[in-house]
Amino acid sequence: MIRRSVKKIAEMLESTAYGNVEQMIEGVQIDSRQVDKNSLFIPMIGQKVDGHSFVEEIKDRVGAVLWQKDHLPYPEGIPYILVEDTTKALQLLSKAYLEQLHCKIYAITGSNGKTSCKDMLCSIFSQEKKTQKTQGNHNNEIGLPLTILEFDEDVEVGILEMGMENRKEIEFLCSLAQPDCTIITTIGSAHMENLGGKYEIAQAKCEIFENMKDYGTLFYNHESKEIEEVLKTLDFKHKKAIPFGKDTSICITSDLKFVKDCMTFTCSCLHSEVKVHALGAHQATNALPCIALALQEGIKEESILKGLSEMEMTKMRTQLIQLGPCKILDDSYKSNPESAMAAIDTLMSLPAKHHIAVLSDMLDLGKDEVALHENIGSYALKSGIDVLICCGPLSKFTAKAYNGQWFETKEECVQILKTYISQDSAILIKGSRAMAMDKIVSALIREE
């Protein structure tokens, strides 16, 4: 993490420091509950809470604070740096710090699969280089700067996830991170409410290509045709864009084999069979750009194979949990039509007597949200799922299309599921993050 004196941080921000400017800082916090005597606290100003109001109570256990000039009076008894805007100062500090490091930055965006690719890349590059990655969902204008400031001085590779809801957001994140190479995983229906359609989503995602460094390479999913449509309109200059997936030179060349919580396959890039510590055909596709990028950057084949076989997936992303004879497929972190269908496919690949899907609402889909929820119900029916249980107002349409069960509360869903967790069952739990479907997973674990 960042280790600088208050004076040096002020210089990086082109600002003025007051108090003990030689105080050493180790790490940055925006949560007053997480500070320690060496932290730099950066008070964020939200709609309901202003972080400046917590400074008085933490001043005896924090190293220093950034302080927005328009907040009077200024703090006493603690080193502080005056800035025009604390949020912009956080972003500027991360950019200045990254410019002082000697590392490669690889950035990932896409409607689905960002976190999985991040985990895969980090595990692969960690075999040969000191590698750090985005923690949790720190992929926006606040989280990405915090991730960069967590990088150690001797980091060699940084893996950054970039999320977005509107145009120009990825452009801004790239202005901070200056990625060397990039990946676009997929273009899906998420954020259609804000952007209008998949082509507009692809335009926003392709900002990662436009704003990476010269001589960089973008690896993009060939099956997301909107990406290629957008790329045709852009100036490549000194950059490359390489497709991966079906009918490309970076593709899967065998059937997938599933064993417990792993899968194996062969691909066009490697001589040996690939074993990935993840489930689902979509995860095999996610591995392709990671393999290709690693090979381009000089990582050995044995390191790639070892990294993929040892990787640990972030929780709530197609995470397999064994509860006696029952398998829980926890994919509760997010949901949209494309990821829901992929999760259903993964569920049906698991050996079990009963296949049960528990689905909640997919948010931010715009004017077609009802039809898209109905489509998932129809897809579940065609896939051969034995039982469909839905929870959430929009999921009524999913349940109706399948002729499945709909409940108003998660507690009711859990009561129904109790009968299956003692049997040879595979249960998928999925919904948008705001639907908090992970609570059902936790309840089932407690019931075991």
From TrEMBL:
GO terms for molecular function: ATP binding; UDP-N-acetylmuramoyl-tripeptide-D-alanyl-D-alanine ligase activity. It is an enzyme of class 6 (ligase). One of its GO terms (cellular component) is cytoplasm. One of its GO terms (biological process) is cell wall organization. Its main location: cytoplasm. Belongs to the MurCDEF family. MurF subfamily. This is UDP-N-acetylmuramoyl-tripeptide--D-alanyl-D-alanine ligase. It comes from Floccifex porci.
